[in-house]
Amino acid sequence: MSLIITAVTGILGCDHVTGPAGLTKCLLGTPYYTKYQYGTCLANVYIIQRSGGKHRCRDRAATYCYYPCMLEKYGIDKGPVYDDCLCDTTRQLQQPSRILPAGCYSPGGMDCNWYRECLHEMFDCTGPAEYAISYGEVYCNLYEQSKSRLSQKALHWLDAARKCLQDALVPVLHLCQVQPTCSDIRTRAFTSHVSCYVKPFEGISVCNLSVRDWLNIFMIVKGSFVSLAWVETLEASVLTASMCLRMFLT
After folding, report:
1. Has residue 2 got a pLDDT over 70?
2. How many CB atoms lie within 10 A of CB 174?
């Protein structure tokens, strides 16, 4: 059974029913932490998904609550607070100039427009970094258009993996201590692929799919091997294959 670790329920700013998602607050989180850190108002369903079922709002009836930075970024439920999570109660935390739709902070994985309507809406990136955003949308749509070529088992994997990939990018929507650069977004976008393919939350691992499904997946994404992201795509493919091989040998 997964360990249930409580997230901090908001009192001011983050309403447990209406949110809104994306607001931040400087929290102490005693007795678990000794320093202040920022927490972000987020949906309970996102917190559960992001943590693989380990974290949830303390108030089980809450739709929203503050999720501490150390839990969301590092999965650490007590002890140190890293520099990128620290906050000063005497200074006002940076808040987003506008609150994005709630679905941006708790993506379902089914809407491929999420990359354009949420990620690109917040970050006006150009060049290779922008390609990382459009890449997510393009291949999300390619998978959607190619569902008839995949088995039911592969479709289950696909739904979980797409949700995982979007959830992995939600933290960059938080404008707190340091705003992510376009390069940071590109790096996070591609580094999340292997874990989301191999171990998506509540989903089937790509390692457990049939050879036929693997071949169909390759045919769907083969265009990325001659794109601006061919290095990252090749690296992710090799790492995914090696992790699957390790799973078969153990």
Report:
1. no
2. 27
